């Protein structure tokens, strides 16, 4: 094998192929921390499209699997290494140019989401998608998973902001799809097909992003409830009438975990807390906030607080974002990502509580409630084999529940390797076959991220 | 052949298969009026997915081409009949149900866009995409072409509102893709792949649409310019700062053609007219209108008129929508649909004027200027063979020009049969090959809309 690798090393600039065992080991897992992760032959860190092409030509020639990897923050094991594979990390592909006239940016995939936001903000522009992990996740990974976030309830998900891509196919061919045109229907919608394809169809080497003018400062409303159902009812009433720019949910476990850490005076007795915002301009933002506060009150909120002060509002958003690390302090997490049509939100949350009771594990639920997209956080101790097993059972049962409620096994994190056994149960045999036909057409040898996604 | 057709007739409810020669002849062309249209064996008008499946199973069994057709308003010849093919018209598939709780509608493809808008408006909801032909085009055709419209500059195009589809594949398999979930990343983005596929991958039999709360009443600004460049400069300034809900352009030919018919007092001496709107709520809408009026003035507008009266505003929008029929009064039209990145808009329009002069044909340009999407209307007399030939040359040269300016041969109408020879020139051989691989994977026998789209 070392002579095989030698030809790859020779084909690329010095330092691009890393074989140091410690470094290679550090690329075994992503944030899903899959215990079944393998060990790659090498980690390849190209800086240019041509280098990615060389890697894939070599991989096709030697029938070696390639695991594309962004910042390694994926939560479904989409970037878990396999024995004998190559991990292709885009971390060194970090250029960006912003064009204010077309209101677009052209970025390489390794740039972090926060870096994209910052680069475009310097031109008075805004890239909306905001995964909670925006400070540590890459734009390429966002596109590979069609990532969501908090503002998606109003502004849509990553795919809505991808106008063009350059991708490298399994055989090393580089293809440009779309470009800085707001409308373009020439040929099949291949740009959109590659968004969310989890590295199974090609490697993204450049993206053209649609940008918006800078966001207006939001008005924020925070409300506590003594029942989850009451909070869920309020969500449906709100989204039926207005377009909030954020509509987030935390359950009592998350509230208390955050309060333990941040000590900001959250209501420890609440069963649910909502953090909502409107970024409509001028008095409309305040009117929306007032409307949401009224809906919360009408639905039995025990406490409602509104603010138009951006910093005060951001403190509550930060609290919501902090929920995952705060709950993680209680143990290891199996992080779920199930979604349902909005009216089923309360049934999903109460069903999850039943699963938690039955499997005797702690499950905290946080949610992008306005999208019906929840993140049940299953807390377990990996050293306790029985508990770990019960947590895994709960993980699957939550997906089964979401599907039974007309929902999805993954709203924004991707199928990866962890959720693959549940995919067919959601989309059915005909759609599975259709996925497979497209995968086979684009990657006939199956070298791209085998075992992940479809 | 008649016995072949007999088996189709027998497989479907009475009246579904139409063989009356006059009726079949009326389905030869769509609005592109392709003179090379063939004549189908029969027109099939199913009402249910199961009937569409029966048609496609039969077509696959007999290797007969199927031309899917919505309302027949396509402008690129995507529904032109072929000799020996079957035209599959969705015109009798007209059900719709609206769900206010999920803010979605499930519709059959034959419903007109205006009927969808009306059905959801009855529930206080809004389906934004608004092709100029919205009163006569079908929602299925809108999805098959990823149709645009006037409000797309702020609200995006059809694909942004398609959450789910049921499609019937070439072999008759029915597949459900997506559904009433605002976020769902399970499996490849196949819903998006079918949007804009022009009937080449499958037949859409049901759509799940994302809806918004009702639109707010817009403030409208109308401005006249003595140069196209000045108007184009204003467009770039506006979209860099705010999000207008409409930003439309008409050239002097269109202005005069509309004024000939409507006599509403448009400035006949103007080189260009802009119709812009903002639907931001409360004072923000007026502030946007004021900003746009100022930008128009700063860029040398000869006349600027603002109104917050919805009826007065709608009169100007109607004038813009009326431009195509008004110019059509001057002769037959070859209707173009080219788009460019915004800064190239003025170069595109002036380049088109040069082509018109060189080919000695009248070309009027109207545009969804905020999207960089233009509709050059090439006027010709089909009885004048030499002029018809010059018009066809201009048609191709305009696409070549758009591509040279970094643009697209079609922004929202589709490639159809008319633009197919120019597709490879825009997207390049690698993307063509990728399109072809997907087409072959989904329709290996090539029976779905052969010769159209990809």
TrEMBL record, chains A, B:
Q: Which cofactors is this protein said to need?
A: FAD
InterPro entries (UniProt xref): FAD-bd_oxidored_4_C (IPR004113), FAD-bd_PCMH (IPR016166), FAD-bd_PCMH-like_sf (IPR036318), FAD-bd_PCMH_sub2 (IPR016169), FAD-linked_Oxase-like_C (IPR016164), FAD-linked_OxidoTrans_Type4 (IPR051914), Oxid_FAD_bind_N (IPR006094), Vanillyl_alc_oxidase_C-sub2 (IPR016171)
Task: Please give one Gene Ontology molecular function term for this protein.
Answer: oxidoreductase activity
Q: Where is the FAD-binding PCMH-type domain?
A: 36-214
Gene3D superfamilies in the record, alphabetically? 3.30.465.10, 3.30.70.2740, Vanillyl-alcohol Oxidase, Chain A, domain 4
Pfam families in alphabetical order: FAD-oxidase_C, FAD_binding_4
Keywords from UniProt, A to Z, are:
FAD, Flavoprotein, Oxidoreductase
Q: What is this protein called?
A: Glycolate oxidase subunit GlcD
Query: What lineage is on file?
Result: Bacteria, Bacillati, Actinomycetota, Actinomycetes, Mycobacteriales
């Amino acid at each position: 094998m070392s002579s095989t690798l030698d030809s790859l090393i020779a084909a690329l600039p010095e330092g691009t192929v890393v074989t140091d065992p410690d470094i290679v080991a550090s690329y075994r897992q992503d944030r899903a921390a899959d215990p079944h992760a393998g060990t790659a032959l090498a980690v390849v860190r190209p800086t240019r499209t041509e280098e990615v092409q060389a890697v894939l030509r070599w991989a096709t020639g030697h029938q070696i699997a390639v695991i594309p990897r962004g910042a390694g923050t994926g939560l479904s094991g989409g970037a878990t290494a396999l024995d004998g594979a190559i991990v292709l990390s885009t971390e060194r592909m970090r250029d960006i140019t912003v064009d204010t006239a077309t209101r677009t940016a052209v970025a390489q995939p390794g740039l972090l989401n926060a870096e994209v936001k910052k680069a475009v903000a310097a031109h008075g522009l805004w890239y909306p998608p905001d995964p909670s992990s925006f400070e540590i996740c890459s734009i390429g990974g966002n596109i590979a998973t069609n990532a969501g976030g908090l503002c998606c309830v109003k502004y849509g998900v990553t795919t809505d902001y991808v106008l063009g891509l350059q991708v490298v196919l399994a055989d090393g061919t580089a293809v440009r799809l779309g470009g800085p045109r707001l409308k373009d229907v020439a040929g099949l919608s291949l740009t959109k097909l590659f968004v969310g394809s989890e590295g199974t169809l090609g490697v993204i080497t450049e993206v053209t992003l649609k940008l918006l003018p800078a966001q207006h400062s939001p008005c924020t409303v925070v409300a506590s409830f003594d029942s989850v159902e009451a909070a869920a009812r309020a969500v449906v009433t709100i989204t039926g009438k207005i377009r909030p720019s954020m509509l987030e949910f935390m359950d009592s476990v998350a509230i208390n975990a955050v309060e333990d850490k941040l000590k900001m005076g959250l209501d420890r007795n609440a069963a649910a807390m909502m953090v909502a915002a409107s970024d409509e301009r001028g008095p409309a933002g305040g009117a929306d906030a007032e409307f949401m506060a009224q809906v919360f009150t009408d639905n039995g909120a025990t406490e409602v607080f509104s603010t138009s002060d951006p910093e005060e509002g951001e403190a509550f958003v930060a609290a919501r974002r902090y929920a995952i690390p705060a709950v993680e302090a209680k143990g290891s997490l199996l992080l779920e990502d199930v979604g349902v049509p909005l009216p089923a939100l309360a049934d999903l949350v109460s069903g999850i509580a039943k699963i938690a009771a039955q499997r005797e594990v702690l499950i905290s639920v946080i949610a992008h409630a306005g999208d019906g997209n929840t993140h049940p956080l299953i807390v377990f101790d990996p050293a306790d084999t029985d508990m770990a097993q019960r947590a895994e059972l709960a993980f699957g049962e939550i997906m089964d529940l979401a599907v039974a409620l007309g929902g999805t096994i993954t709203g924004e994190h991707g199928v990866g390797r962890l959720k693959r056994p549940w995919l067919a149960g959601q989309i059915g045999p005909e759609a599975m076959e259709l996925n497979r036909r497209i995968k086979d057409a684009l990657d006939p040898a199956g070298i791209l991220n085998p075992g992940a996604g479809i």
